[in-house]
């Protein structure tokens, strides 16, 4: 009898099912579909990493929850993944970061119309009212916080160039808030081009701008991947000591530059890809613990300076 | 050797420490202080219940996290609880529903200034910028959603009375949004009085209004506890068949009335006290799992109708 009991415990533990998990596990099992873009820059690489890490953690913690994770390089594949999750995997909920939210809106609405819980991460759909839960960074805040720094760093004004992201709503929210906040100052935007939150595009667009303008004081490129490309272009043009630049997201190598007191990259603004872990946690809690979590969770976009950079310098981060 | 291993496992399981929990437990331990008002109405009773239930669940799930829970009947006691949590219990974080947010702002700011993480639930402080995380229902949404129902139910207008909550910001957010939404309609507010989200006050204020006005068509009292008092006053005055009333929060007995097709209580609006469980979950995840959760989580205030009431009818709820 004693042997039987201990053997059963060993089996339980070997299966990754512990007392804590088992104690709250219910009879019903749940399947959560997770759909993310294939990494096209460092930030989406962070998204994929945290999605994998958190689904691993949660499926150990809550043995009655299973996750189906799919990565998609484009909207055609992402739409097909959703179709598969509903028709053959029978998901109860979808947690999705739509690569192109406009193109994905109809597919996501179908999942919602099929009676599934829908959690959207980061990128707003082109039609309101679809998600049960929306988790994102503060995009207007990212623009406003950055603009406040530019105003402080350029009290008498100056000439800047703006490298935008992808032409989707969160880029517009960031840029509108930035432009609104510098209104009435002597900060002049010489030029503004899309660089798609991409390292190579950041490099090319910055090279082009350096050719066109010889009076650039500073760069706002809204994203740390783009910033890596911008810094390369500045270095090659011998401008890395005269032009400073601000990205965004809190990429570890950029946070470390800020932490070290870089003059070229004086600050950063947080927009951490681990937001997908929080989206997965909240969605899971809804099913296993009955939390009412339909709503909007907007995570702060905070200014990262030399003084506080240490708290944004995450060890073992992939991003 | 084998015996030793299984014995150790039995001990581990007996202590409520399972594989799942142990696998992610870190060396560092954390103490989270939880400060809530002593139940003064059904909704705060729900808050106390969920705070207790969730701290029990989380301390089993994450053995390296301890919770110190204190209930306070007034601001003097709640301020003393905070002082104790910082100076003698050495908390890493505070999760608080401030009974009177104006009176508690200075005490909460002290906790923040001492370098502790601060999560505020439900009620906004009188000074901005203090909390790391704010978790609340959608208060303007509660007013706007209710007003949309009144407009639909009274297409030609009518006479209503408004019973307000406590004179704190979330009451003003609800009432401002309601008044804004009925602007330009023929819905006339005959009178508006504070009933403090309280059953007895709801009863007394409604009795008073029934004495003053004989032409009331409907009541908006914003809270299901107040509504219970209002319904009692209507019944005693023989008006329970001629005046309808809408509260708010999703109290189970009210949801059941809506579900059964009541003409007197046709709808309700959700504002579930289990938001404190979500606040505790997010705060805990910040420490045990590194989630960046500083921000604002606003949970939807949804219209509860006969058609969807079933999904708001939580079994075993204390509220």
General description of the model:
- The structure is a homodimer of 319-residue chains.
- With 319 residues, chain A is α/β, with parallel strands linked by helices.
- Chain A is built from eleven helices and twelve strands.
- In chain A, the strands form three sheets. In chain A, strands 2-1-3-4-5-11 form a six-stranded parallel sheet, with helices on both faces. A four-stranded parallel sheet of chain A has the order 7-6-8-9, with helices on both faces.
- The longest helix of chain A has 20 residues.
- The first copy, chain A, starts with a helix and ends in a 15-residue tail after the last strand.
- Chains A and B meet through helix 1, helix 2, helix 3, helix 11 and strand 11 of A and helix 1, helix 2, helix 3, helix 11 and strand 11 of B.
- Strand 11 of chain A pairs antiparallel with strand 11 of chain B.
Q: In percent terms, what proportion of residues of chain A is strand?
A: 15-25%
H/E element string of chain A? HHEHEHEHEEHEHEHEHEHEHEE
Rg of chain A (CA only): 22 Å
- Please give the share of residues in helix of chain A: 40-55%
Q: Please state the oligomeric state of the protein chains shown.
A: homodimer
The geometry of chain A reads as: elongated
Q: State the strand order across the main sheet of chain A.
A: 2-1-3-4-5-11
Distance between the termini of chain A: 51 Å
Largest sheet of chain A: 6 strands, parallel
Tally of helical segments of chain A: 11
């Amino acid at each position: 009898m004693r042997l039987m009991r201990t053997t059963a415990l060993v089996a339980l533990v070997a299966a990754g099912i512990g007392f804590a998990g088992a104690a709250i596990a219910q009879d019903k099992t749940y399947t959560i579909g997770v759909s993310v873009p294939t990494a096209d820059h460092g930030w989406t690489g962070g998204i994929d990493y945290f999605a994998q890490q958190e689904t691993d953690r949660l499926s150990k913690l809550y043995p009655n929850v299973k996750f189906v994770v799919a990565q998609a390089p484009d909207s055609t594949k992402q739409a097909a993944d959703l179709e598969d999750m509903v028709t053959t995997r029978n998901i109860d909920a979808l947690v999705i970061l739509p690569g192109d939210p406009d193109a994905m809106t109809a597919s996501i609405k179908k999942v919602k119309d099929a009676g599934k819980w829908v959690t959207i991460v980061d990128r707003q759909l082109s039609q309101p009212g679809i998600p049960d839960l929306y988790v994102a960074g503060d995009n207007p805040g990212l623009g406003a916080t950055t603009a406040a720094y530019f105003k402080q760093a350029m009290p008498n004004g100056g000439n800047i160039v703006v490298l935008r992201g992808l032409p989707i709503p969160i880029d517009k929210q960031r840029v509108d808030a930035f432009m609104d906040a510098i209104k009435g100052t002597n900060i002049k935007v010489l030029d503004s081009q899309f660089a798609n939150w991409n390292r190579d595009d950041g490099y090319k667009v910055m090279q082009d701008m350096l050719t066109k303008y010889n009076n650039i004081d500073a760069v706002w490129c809204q994203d740390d991947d783009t910033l890596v490309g911008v810094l390369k272009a500045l270095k090659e043009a011998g401008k890395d000591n005269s032009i400073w630049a601000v990205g965004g997201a809190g990429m570890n190598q950029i946070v470390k530059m800020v932490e070290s007191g870089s003059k070229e990259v004086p600050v950063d603004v947080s927009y951490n890809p681990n937001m997908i872990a929080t989206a997965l946690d909240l969605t899971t809690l809804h099913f296993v613990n009955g939390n009412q979590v339909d709503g909007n969770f907007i995570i702060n976009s905070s200014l990262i300076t030399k003084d506080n950079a240490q708290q944004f310098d995450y060890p073992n981060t992939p991003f």
